[in-house]
Amino acid sequence: MASVHSVCVADRKGVKKRPVDRIELVADHGVAGDAHAGSGRQVSLLALEDMETMRLKLATIQPGDFAENLLVTGLSDLNLEVGGRVRVGETVLLEITQIGKECHKGCEIRKAVGECIMPKRGLFAKVLLGGAVLPGDVVVIA
Asked: What CA–CA distance (Å, rounded) separates 73 from 62?
């Protein structure tokens, strides 16, 4: 079963996000208070297992370092594709809009280890139904 490991936000683009106790997702907008809200990539998701793989190469990697909003244990097991939907917690419904993205040329992780996982492993979603998301919330295919 997939579940939210951590939730993260940043008030500007191109920086690491910081873990917080909870985030509020707003329909057709994204994460309240996050720099990517209102963009085509409203919410970003990353599998905890992918982050852990990168941590073997750079031990200092922490939640939010890949600018992900939701770090999810077991995310890869859901085998999500563009157009797929997931429920997060009791009320949130997300639709996957993009898999992967171009990595920033100045990405600190790419500079340190020679690669970044977001171009192939990051998922991006649009918020269909909003609500609060907290660490521990269950993530299931809708």
From this structure: 14
Q: CB of 122 within 8 A of CB of 100?
A: yes
pTM above 0.70, yes or no: yes
Q: What's the CATH code of the domain at 101?
A: 2.40.33.20
CA distance 49 to 71: 9
pLDDT tens-place string over residues 37-71: 998 889 999 999 999 988 988 888 899 988 899 99
Residue 87 sits at φ, ψ, to 5 deg, of -100, 140
Tally of domains in the chain = 1
User: Which residues face 32 on adjacent strands?
Assistant: none
Burial 51-61, CB ≥16 within 10 A → b, else e: beebeeeeeeb
Q: What is the pLDDT of residues 13-23, one digit of tens each?
A: 877 899 999 99
Range of the domain at 61: 2-141
Q: What are phi and psi of 49, to 5 degrees?
A: -60, -35
